[in-house]
């Protein structure tokens, strides 16, 4: 196949068509807690149960995950766009993102879990791949829980684009 230049518009359009859920990733390092809106998440293994979570390499949360080796994913329900939006704010500019959001710390990791989410998984990092501007953290699911039934919030339902 001959080398052809990358069609930037087609690349952006096609990458944005990959469906993504919307989650709040809670992190803990020592006594410090943080959270961020995550959408580049997927199940990666049945046995042991694993997920991948792609995290922006220059973020506070990235450094916290690297240091602590744990994270929790709260699965947001459709209609919880406001919760997701709250966790887009960088920590250094907004202070405590959990201020108005009810959460508790997971028993297995101590990471924050959103009380009103559909449920959660807590993970210990068992591997990572660092390329580009995000790191792919592979997390083994060491705890999980359901809060309620419902449909998950999808990125396409928010009107936001994170991709392409």
TrEMBL record:
Alphabetical UniProt keywords: Oxidoreductase
Domain of life from the UniProt record: Bacteria
Residue ranges constituting the Flavin reductase like domain according to the UniProt record: 15-162
GO molecular function, one term: FMN binding
Gene3D superfamilies: Electron Transport, Fmn-binding Protein, Chain A
SUPFAM superfamilies assigned: FMN-binding split barrel (SSF50475)
InterPro entries: Flavin_Rdtase-like_dom, NADH-dep_flavin_reductase, Split_barrel_FMN-bd
Family (UniProt): Belongs to the non-flavoprotein flavin reductase family.
Protein name: Diguanylate cyclase
Species in which this protein is naturally found: Leptolyngbya foveolarum
């Amino acid at each position: 196949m001959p080398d052809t230049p990358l069609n930037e518009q087609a690349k952006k359009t096609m990458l944005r068509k990959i469906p993504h859920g919307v989650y709040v990733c809670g992190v803990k390092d020592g006594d410090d807690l943080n959270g961020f809106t995550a959408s580049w998440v997927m199940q990666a293994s049945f046995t042991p149960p694993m997920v991948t979570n792609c995290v922006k390499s220059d973020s506070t949360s990235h450094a916290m995950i690297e240091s602590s080796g744990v994270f929790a994913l709260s699965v947001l329900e459709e209609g919880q766009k406001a919760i997701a939006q709250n966790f887009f704010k960088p920590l250094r500019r907004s202070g405590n993102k959990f201020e108005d959001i009810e959460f508790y710390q997971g028993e297995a990791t101590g990471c924050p879990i959103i009380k009103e989410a559909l449920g959660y998984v807590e993970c210990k990092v068992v591997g990572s791949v660092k390329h580009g501007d995000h790191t792919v953290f592979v997390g083994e699911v060491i705890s999980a829980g359901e809060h309620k039934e419902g449909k998950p919030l999808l990125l396409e339902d928010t009107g936001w684009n994170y991709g392409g």
